[in-house]
């Protein structure tokens, strides 16, 4: 279905470096990018362009626009968000969505990768010593930094800073106008190896899902669409919030199946039971 077909990757931030080899090896797809395609029009992490849609909608729009511009019937796009983890509230997380669209076969296949492996951070800086401490915390210089006069002041903002001399120079340039400088991590993929790794993990997950075919109609993309809680406690047998089963569904024929005990355990530790450990 996909072998030797061309796929456009909707990116201007180097994501093809990790996506293209996976789709070549796993599906036989040849990938390319449009050099003129500007994904910053959909929103920027640094804040000067607001993202108006949710991440999945943004990724879908980005993918379809690149496909139309390239006159290509297969496309892929990703969109990431950064902030507090939905369950681990004080832990920052990278939430990546990948969308694969095949117009020829009327397919849309989506995966999500949620990871705590991120350097996402920001801080108001008053001294160069504070800046150097922040830089060390966020894995500089392998991970780039953005400097601004303040969080919402984009005049004079400098992105992609990845060497110490430039970091110091830009800091002192901005510091002339105010007693504070706002430093934040540059979350664009080509400036953030940690994020690029999460995108790679999402691409592997997506290729695996595409290679999974519906047992009923053989359509690609047969994957998990719902997770049921209720794994019983080993002491009291009460239902816990841990995963009891995964629901797999086909988007084409509505066939579904339930797989119990996906984590290879039939009971949960009492420490995760609201009755035994309230």
Jot down its keywords.
278 residues, alpha+beta, Maf protein, Dna Ligase, domain 1, four-stranded antiparallel sheet
What do these coordinates show?
A hairpin with a 6-residue loop joins strand 11 and strand 12 (256-260). This protein is α+β, with helices and mostly antiparallel strands and 278 residues long. The strands form 3 sheets. The protein has a 5-stranded mixed β-sheet with strand order 2-1-3-4-5, with helices on both faces. It is 24% helix and 27% strand. It contains 5 helices and 12 strands. The protein has 3 domains: 6-118 and 193-211, Maf protein (Alpha-Beta Complex), CATH 3.90.950; 122-186, 2-Layer Sandwich (Dna Ligase, domain 1); 225-272, no CATH class.
Summarize this entry quickly.
The chain is an alpha+beta fold. The protein is built from 5 helices and 12 strands.
Which helices and strands occur, and which strands form pairs?
Elements: E1 6-9, H1 16-27, E2 30-32, H2 55-70, E3 74-84, E4 92-102, E5 107-115, E6 122-125, H3 128-137, E7 145-148, E8 158-161, H4 164-175, E9 181-185, H5 193-210, E10 223-229, E11 243-249, E12 256-260
Parallel strand pairs: 1-2, 1-3
Antiparallel strand pairs: 3-4, 4-5, 6-9, 7-8, 7-9, 10-11, 11-12
Helix pairs in contact: 1-5
Mean pLDDT over the full residue set: 95
Question: Could you name the ranges where pLDDT drops below 50 across 5 or more consecutive residues?
Answer: none
- What is the chain-wise order of helices and strands? EHEHEEEEHEEHEHEEE
CATH topology of the largest domain: Maf protein
Largest sheet strand order: 2-1-3-4-5
By DSSP (H or I, 4+ residues per run), the number of helices equals: 5
Write down how many β-strands occur, each being a DSSP E stretch of 2 or more residues. 12
Secondary-structure-derived class: alpha+beta
The CATH architecture of the largest domain would be Alpha-Beta Complex
Portion of residues in beta strands equals 25-35%
- End-to-end C-alpha gap: 52 Å
Number of domains: 3
CATH domain class of the largest domain: Alpha Beta
Please summarize the sheet with the most strands: 5 strands, mixed
**Mind telling me the C-alpha Rg?**
22 Å
Using the alpha-carbon principal axes, give the shape. Answer: flat
| Quaternary structure annotation | single chain
Helix content: 10-25%
């Amino acid at each position: 279905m996909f072998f030797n077909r061309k796929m456009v990757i909707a990116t201007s931030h180097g994501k093809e470096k990790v996506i293209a080899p996976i789709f070549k090896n796993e599906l036989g797809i040849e990938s390319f990018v449009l050099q003129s395609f500007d994904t910053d029009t959909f929103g920027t992490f640094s804040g000067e362009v607001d993202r108006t849609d949710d991440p999945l909608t943004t990724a879908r729009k980005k993918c379809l626009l690149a496909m139309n511009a390239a006159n290509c019937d297969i496309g892929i796009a990703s969109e990431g968000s950064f902030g507090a983890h939905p369950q681990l509230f004080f832990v920052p997380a990278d939430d990546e969505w990948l969308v694969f669209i095949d117009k020829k076969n009327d397919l849309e296949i989506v995966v999500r990768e949620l990871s705590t492996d991120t350097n996402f951070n920001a801080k108001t800086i008053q001294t160069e010593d504070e800046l150097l401490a922040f830089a060390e915390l966020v894995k500089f210089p392998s991970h780039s930094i953005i400097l601004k006069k303040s969080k919402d002041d984009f005049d004079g903002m400098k992105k992609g800073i990845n060497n110490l001399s430039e970091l110091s120079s830009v800091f002192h340039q901005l510091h002339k106008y105010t007693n504070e400088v706002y430093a934040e991590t540059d979350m664009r993929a080509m400036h953030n190896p940690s994020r690029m790794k999460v995108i790679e993990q999402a691409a592997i997950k997506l290729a695996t899902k595409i290679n999974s075919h519906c047992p009923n109609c053989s359509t690609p993309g047969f994957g998990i669409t719902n997770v049921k809680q209720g794994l019983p406690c080993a002491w009291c047998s009460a239902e816990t919030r841990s995963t009891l089963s995964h629901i797999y569904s086909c988007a084409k024929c509505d066939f579904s199946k339930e797989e119990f005990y996906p984590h290879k355990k039939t009971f949960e530790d009492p420490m995760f039971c609201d009755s035994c450990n309230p």
